[in-house]
Amino acid sequence: MNDFHGTDHDERLRRSLGIDRRRFLSTCTAAAAGAIAAPVFGASPVQAAPSSTGHGKGQTLVPADKRGIILYTVRDATGRDPLSTPLPSGFRAVFEQLARFGYRQVEFAGYAQHPNAPGGADLENVKGARLLRRWLDDNGLRAQGNHGFIPPSWPLSREDLDTYKRHLEIANILGMDHMGTGADPTDSPYRSDWDVAADKWNTLGEIARRAGIKLYTHNHDAAYSFLLDGGPLDDQGRPTRSSGIRRLEYFLTVTDPHLVWLEMDIYWAHVAQYKFRTYTAHDGSVRENIFDPAGLVARHTKRYPLFHAKDGVVDTTNGQGYEMVPFGTGVIDYTTFFTRVGHRTYHNPMVEQDNAPSSTDPGQSLEYARIGYRNLAALRRRK
């Protein structure tokens, strides 16, 4: 196990984050331990394993150049006033800190920061993108994607098309292979609406392909609920029952694999596993179908170039089955997940924690980013 205590590096880190020594050490110790009882529905805790970068058993599951973080996790740090605090603030300082932790990739969640940060408030333009690219390069970081603008209108308006193309230009300046959104393609449960969404995404994907970018959509739990595609119709002529296929599974079948990609949020996929276990079939019978997130990726592995690596502990009181915690300190079995999906040099996991920012602890989100990196780097194939 890594020694979290007593090094000059850790002392400098503690001071840069504004964290008192007692809490810094206790948090790091808890992250290193990370052993929490697994839920009854099948996950097991992530365990740190002996260091190894060789082949076969003990192999690092996430190569160093694939370890990333979505900046939404540290949005309070990129958005705060650097004149008001010694903590890392704004994109440039946050990039520097993330690189010190060891991250080599970032995923953007927009391009806004505090007006007092270097470069000003709005970097969503060519000049701002060039500035961001320089800061990324200076810190050995690569931009891998962005949760940005996807045209809401369909058919496309001229204004939305122009905005979309501008975001593709920004993505190219930043050196991204992918550009996407944090939203599902549609919130509808009906197959007809997913057909419309597929038509839209195929069209947008072709535009992105011509710009050299892969278009992707992110998921929440509802996107892996069951599609309504048959059975008796309701009073508005809509289907009320399901064939048992899940919404995003259907989306995979009706979108072009050369034009549309997906980013699985592994946490929300596990929430879906907990919530959506049965469906009413076309004949009215209730059937069980337990979702297997890693199995879906394994069947469509090249469609999932990006992941959100987000962790949780068991909570059966909130309707979701989990409560978010720093990556590697929860019960989602990432060792098994990354082993099953294969292609360790293809997928790009982005550490994420929606609730990392704190109104009372301004250093918390960056502290959790550090814990997340340590635990992502510690994942090894089981012996």
From TrEMBL:
Keywords: Isomerase
An MF annotation (GO) of this entry: isomerase activity
Protein name: Sugar phosphate isomerase/epimerase
Classification via InterPro entries: IolE/XylAMocC-like, TAT_signal, TAT_signal_bac_arc, Xyl_isomerase-like_sf, Xyl_isomerase-like_TIM-brl
UniProt key word Transmembrane: no
All copies of domain Xylose isomerase-like TIM barrel, residue ranges: 95-351
Record NCBIfam families: TAT_signal_seq
Organism of this sequence: Streptomyces thermoviolaceus subsp. thermoviolaceus
